Amino acid sequence: MRAIHGGDFWKVWGEEFQDLEDRSDIVPADVLDAWFEPSPRVIEVLSNNVAWMCRTSPPTHAEGFRRTISRVRGIAESALLTSSGSSTILFQGLPLLIKAGDRALILDPTYGEYSHVLENTLQICVERFALQAESGFEVDFAALMKRVTNSAYKLVALVNPNSPTGSLLSREQILELCKAAPETMFWIDETYVDYASTGNSVETDTESFRNLIVCKSMSKAYALSGLRVAYACGPPDFVLKMNTLTPPWAISLPGQLSGVYALLDESYYLGRWALTRELRHLLAKELNQLRLGQALEGAANFIMLMLDPRGPTALEVKNACESAGVFVREIGSMGETGGAYSLRIAVRSAEENRRIVTALESASLFIEQASHPRSTQGPWL
Ligand SMILES: Cc1ncc(COP(=O)(O)O)c(C=O)c1O
């Protein structure tokens, strides 16, 4: 049993990489990879050293990469660990924190690997904090605080900003939760936090809070998904245990090099994140003009589109978009809330976003004409 993910476009590109010549026909907006390229400094170092990188063992435990993170992000080395993608960190780290019989809390809907690892591999009875469509899937902080302080959870895992909703808790709110429930371990997944305005990360706070772990993928915000680079920070005893479990050479040499050079070019990425926010804003506006439902802009590099339930389902729209080469994500597998009529759409380049809007418009018109009579009145919430 595995969690469900996007990536259906690989069926067109060819999973054996046999069809890589022309990739421009596809808009892969069902995964949340960056629409922009990695820093030019990353591209230069990779391009100039391909053959050498292929045949050379990387630093065994990514020592230089860890030192760079420590220096650039202001986190003590003793609080830091690195690995081949945050998926690896999640699969190795969560079992150290919780066992069968303990209680855990996650948001609903949220990134599917959390329920998968906790329920399917660790047999934990996971409770859900349901986000409500009526309030635009924002996290009701007062209610979350009450739930967390009254329930003695062993673990609370929060994706911040959350996927697929894009809803964001502030740094102060996360720290308030940590203070209010000192016996609970808070696992904060900051895969998308860099896309929100600055100041929301709690990564440097892990030194002050023994019940805080931050898991940080460099896949999406640094455009390194294919290289599998991530780090986490938390209490030294957790870091030590993780280090014992992490195999040598876990991150490839291209991965370590890219991680270092990317972190050294923060100004490039700050510009890309700011531009992503502009593109997101424009895409949300155009999606709302289609009157298919309501586009929730959120704080990350994606939009949640809540379709009018009187029209086609998310699955119908997703399938119809695929025939135009546009891949979007139907979120039914990410929780019990909002499933059948919600899509998650990655923010892509301006040109690709135009294709997304056109494909969604044609898809819904086509389906509607075929089967669903629909009023033109909105809004639907
Ligand atoms: C919230 C969240 N966490 C973790 C991951 C895994 O990222 P990676 O393994 O590429 O670091 C993803 C990937 O989509 C994600 O959306």
Brief digest:
The protein has 381 residues and is an alpha/beta fold.
Task: Characterise this structure.
The protein is of the alpha/beta class. The protein contains 13 helices and 13 strands. The strands form 3 sheets. The chain has a 7-stranded mixed beta sheet, with helices on both faces. A 4-stranded antiparallel beta sheet has the order 9-10-13-12, with helices on one face. Strand 3, helix 6 and strand 4 (125-130) form a beta-alpha-beta unit. Helix 4 runs parallel beside helix 10 (253-263), helix 5 (86-97) crosses helix 6 and helix 11 packs parallel to helix 13. The longest helix has 25 residues, at 266-290. The chain binds pyridoxal-5'-phosphate. Pyridoxal-5'-phosphate binds at residues 32, 85-87, 111, 159, 163, 189, 191, 217, 219, 225, 230.
